[in-house]
Amino acid sequence: MAAKILAFAGSARKDSWNKKLIQIASEGACEKGAEVTVIDLKDFPLPIFDQDLESASGLPENAKKIKKLFIEHDGLLLACPEYNSSITPLLKNVIDWVSRAETKEEKPLSAYQGKAAALLAASPGGLGGLRGLVTVRSILGNIGVIVLPEQMAVSKAHEAFDATGKLKDPKQEVAVKKIGANLADFLTRGVIPAKAGIPI
Predict the structure, then answer these.
(1) 65, 68, 120, 142: which could form a disulfide with 79 (CB 3.0–4.6 Å)?
(2) Cα torsion 153, 180, 144, 10: sign
(3) Is residue 198, in this structure, part of any structural domain at all?
(4) Any alpha helices (H) in the chain, and if so which ranges?
(5) What pTM was estimated for this model as a whole?
(6) Predicted local distance difference test score (pLDDT) of residue 196
(7) Domain count for the chain
(8) CA 36-12-129 angle, 5° bins
């Protein structure tokens, strides 16, 4: 059975560098035989998480749709922008809504249990979004997701991509694809991948 991976960027911006990054990483996963579903969070608008709203109306329809996608896939491939040294409000809001149970019988965090994730980031800063990945890794690890140790951060993102959305540096392109490939390998074989050889 092919591994099923849900891939998205934690950004709603049309020309997001992280959306470009997730496309490249997804290619690497597909080359390893994974079935990758790439979504745009802009297509699933959600209110800020509000427990009073949840109590009155239940999960919003878009939260149910995204949660269903999480449940249907084995792994998560995430490209995470960094806002003020941390996670984006958009990504955190999605994580929070998806974490909620729809019935009293549903196990807590059911959409996350048994999943594996691989992380990437792109930022115009010199660290490439690494500080935000620390927070994303901590959140996912605490809710039952296995987060692969290797990650990739692309610095000076405003200069890193060509007009077609590919990375100008062929070594970076290979390294980003390797993140997706590693996740596919882990989901298929349960093996923690070796480092790609490109420093983060």
Answers:
(1) 120
(2) positive
(3) no
(4) 17-31, 51-57, 61-72, 89-98, 130-142, 157-160, 170-189
(5) 0.93
(6) 43
(7) 1
(8) 80
